[in-house]
Amino acid sequence: MLKIKDLSVEIEGNKILKGLNLEMNKGEVHAIMGPNGAGKSTLSAVIAGREEYEVTGGTIEFEEKDIMDMAPEERAHLGIFLSFQYPVEIPGVSVTNFIKTAINESRKATDLDPMPAKDLLKKMRDKQELLEMDKTFMSRSINEGFSGGEKKRNEIFQMAMLDPKLAILDETDSGLDIDALRIVANGVNKLKNDNNAVMIITHYQRLLDHIVPDFVHVLFDGKIVKTGDKNLALRLEDQGYDWIKQEQKV
Amino acid sequence: MNLQEKLSQSFKDLGSRLNGSESKSLRELRSRSFDYFKGQGFPTNQDEEWKYTSLNKIVKRDFDFSSQVSSEILAEDIEPFLCEGLDSYKLIFINGVFNKSLSILGSNEKFFVGSLKQGMKEMPDIINTHYGKLADTKQSLVALNTAMANEGAFVYVNKGVKLDKLVQILFVNTNHEESRMMQTRNLFVLEDFAEVQIFERHQALNQGHVFSNSVTESSVGNQAHFKHFKLQNDFDSSSMVDSTFVKQGANSSALVDTFAFSGELVRNNLHFEFTGMHAEAHMDAITLLKGKSLVDHHTFVDHAVPHCQSNQLYKGVYDEKSKGVFNGKVMVRKDAQKTNAFQQNNNLLLSDFSSIDTKPQLEIFADDVACSHGCTIGQLDEEALFYMQTRGIPLKEAKAFLMFAFAGDTLKNITIPELKTQLINLVARELKVDLELNEV
Lengths: 250, 440
Ligand SMILES: Nc1ncnc2c1ncn2[C@@H]1O[C@H](COP(=O)(O)OP(=O)(O)OP(=O)(O)O)[C@@H](O)[C@H]1O
Ligand SMILES: [Mg+2]
Description:
- The structure holds two protein chains of two kinds.
- By secondary structure, chain A is of the alpha/beta class.
- Chain A has one domain (2-249): P-loop containing nucleotide triphosphate hydrolases (Rossmann fold, 3-Layer(aba) Sandwich), CATH 3.40.50.
- Chain A is built from nine helices and twelve strands.
- Chain A has helices spanning 40-48, 72-78, 95-109, 117-130, 148-162, 178-191, 205-210, 230-239, 242-249; strands at residues 2-11, 14-24, 29-33, 54-62, 65-66, 80-83, 90-94, 141-142, 166-170, 197-201, 215-220, 223-228.
- In chain A, the strands form three sheets. In chain A, strands 6-9-10-3-11-12 form a six-stranded mixed beta sheet, with helices on both faces. In chain A, strands 2-1-4-5 form a four-stranded antiparallel beta sheet, covered by helices on one side. In chain A, strands 7-8 form a two-stranded antiparallel sheet.
- The longest helix of chain A has 15 residues, at 95-109.
- Helix content of chain B is 23%, strand content 38%.
- Chain B contains ten helices and 20 strands.
- In chain B, the strands form two sheets. A ten-stranded mixed beta sheet of chain B has the order 2-1-6-8-10-12-14-16-18-20, covered by helices on one side.
- In chain B, a hairpin with a 3-residue loop joins β3 and β4.
- In chain B, α9 (395-408) crosses α10.
- Chain B is globular and about 70 Å long.
- Classes of the chains: A alpha/beta, B alpha/beta.
- Chains A and B meet through α2, β6, β7 and α3 of A and α8 and α9 of B.
- Bound molecules: adenosine-5'-triphosphate and magnesium ion (MG).
- The site of adenosine-5'-triphosphate has 14 residues of chain A, from β2 and α1.
């Protein structure tokens, strides 16, 4: 589904990703871990199409298509979704309006008529329930004045509404309390199936207790330096990154 | 002949046409005002209040003062510019001339909706009491208008009467060959406990150089409620100076909501004053410009009595080479304790060549007051645009969405659904937002 080869990325002359390789197939859950500043959010933003980052080498293919020259919205229409580490506040745009526009723009891109209002409302109600969200959120401006945890839950709500093929969750767990973490993880698990894939960027094991990864990757100094199964995450939780750094020096 | 000389000639012509038919006091007011204008001339950049906005190019034009050829305008020609789908009064002016057959008038002992000339005939006492009482004839353009204006809208609402229909006032201009100067004059009088809402629109039908010098006086009685929506949606070849004076009695509320979408030069002078306590004034405006348009909002709120409130919310989106000016002056005099005065001016600059000059001026002489002002100038938030794109919203739509959201809260005081729809549609059209997708 996703094939990243030799990806190198710079911002303002700083090399951030330095020849990164990663492959994901449908039905899989991949966790990406790594110290602060390693380039995890950069990777997620580049996959989603952020232009500020300069791609100096390598390729990204999604479902056999080169997506490098596509605008972020085109990638979204293909089914790529990014849950932001820091969701953006948009004053004056209600959650309902926003999600409605997002869904219908995606449908338009694939030559579908807008979703009938009734179906849309029902879907919204279902997903709200799934994520145990308060109804009043729907009429509030996107993320404006939302607490950290509310913002993250709203991200997953949007993911649930948009049904992406590839969901990239950038530190969705940070800011969530214990109950919210369980609810959000449960939501993601419900959405998970054999035809989609999830990339979880996280620092902690606790989310991976709920959403069990098939692969765990360590991103360090702009590259994936280690790949293992769920036990790798447990070892990192236990020992930190020092041993990885040691290995790299050798 | 230069414009000044032409105006002198035109003033003489007006005098002989009127041939003493007006009241003595009005005749005197006219000649006093004209003398004042002659002494002052048009404002120049030397004038502090006109520092950023120059009339130079406009007053040098070769204006035609010959009498207007009446033009055949049908109801369907003006229909697009009116708010449809609701029962309303309509006052239609074509090239400054009142068109009775296209208008829908109303009058009885409770109210009067008609032209100023009709009002002078039918309600001379009311006109005498209110006409020329608020307009500041020490401003040369107001003086010029006071001297020359001969037509406009007159709305009178008697004590305790709530006018249930919207009053729509449409000034249409059809000139395209010659440059024309218009002096329109409105008078709105609300007695105590009265209520009315007015929608005033200036619309050119083609690309002629029209220069409208418009003056409006609104007298809002005690506990009366007044809303005035102004739409300046002309071609970018027409210019306008609008001077509006509002006086409010105790416990009254008044709103002036300005929509400026185009114009070679538009200058709005808005003046509010209070004569009784607990009055509430609202000034909202949304300015959406492109091309080389210039819109200059000058507001002046004079708090001279205690316990009054004023709220100003001015928002602007400037693209291409357009230019905005906001100059908001709030005066809180010594006795005006417990005044609440708020002012907000937020701007988006969409191009490197657009600009905004914003200048809040608070002069506070009372000590127990709450006053604030804020001003922002920014671009569209790149993070927010990317965020929307990752959700599948194309960049162009995302931009329009953000601008629409930015402009949105200037629409909150519109309570008539049909009018709200009309104005939202116009804003959306200016911003190229697809309302099918982004229903508000
Ligand atoms: N817009 C930018 N301008 C300059 N430097 C940037 C920019 N964005 C990211 N960087 C730098 O790139 C590096 C990688 O940042 P990134 O956000 O990808 O790290 P991360 O792995 O997600 O870290 P964290 O775990 O703290 O979220 C950091 O050193 C960061 O300072
Ligand atoms: Mg990060």
